[in-house]
Design goal:
The structure is a single chain. The protein has a four-stranded parallel β-sheet with strand order 3-2-1-4. It has one domain: 3-Layer(aba) Sandwich (Rossmann fold), CATH 3.40.50. It is built from seven helices and four strands. The radius of gyration is 15 Å and the shape is globular. It is of the alpha/beta class.
Length: 141
């Protein structure tokens, strides 16, 4: 497993947006994972979306080819360090993003996200280089 996929990419993938479909299909050969935090964020979108049954079916199909990584004590300790460092430097981001970053760092995975503005603040976090052409954000992070 090489990549941790952020919520924004999964939401766009589930909506059938071509750039996201193409890139994730290519990356799948190297192994994809999602954080348990992302799993929860996607389910929030499903529960409060326009077609929960269809959206859940699509997400369950997606989950067949990815690993859902649980949170554990070591990840939570890394989360605490990251959050404290961000707070000290005045660069704090939302807790869900810090948990996702802590998961990527713990498992030494490259984060696939369109939310580079937040995640670039985290030292040592590997981000997938932006592909050529602009990807349309789903509005979720």
């Amino acid at each position: 497993m090489k990549y941790l996929v952020d919520t924004d990419w999964i939401a766009a993938y589930l909506k059938g947006r071509q750039p996201f479909l193409q890139v994730l299909t290519q990356l799948a050969a190297d192994g994809l994972a999602v954080s348990l935090m992302t799993y929860g964020e996607i389910y929030e979108g499903i529960y409060f979306g326009t077609d929960p049954k269809a959206q859940e079916t699509g997400f369950q199909r997606f989950l067949r080819v990815v690993t859902v990584l649980p949170l554990n004590r070591l990840i939570m300790r890394r989360f605490a360090r990251l959050r404290g460092q961000l707070r000290q430097t005045g660069q704090l981001i939302g807790d869900p993003d810090v948990l996702i970053a802590a998961t990527a760092l713990h498992y030494d995975l490259t984060l696939v996200t369109n939310n580079r503005r937040h995640f670039e603040r985290i030292h040592g976090l590997k981000l997938l280089p932006a592909p050529s052409g602009r990807l349309v954000s789903s509005g979720q992070s």
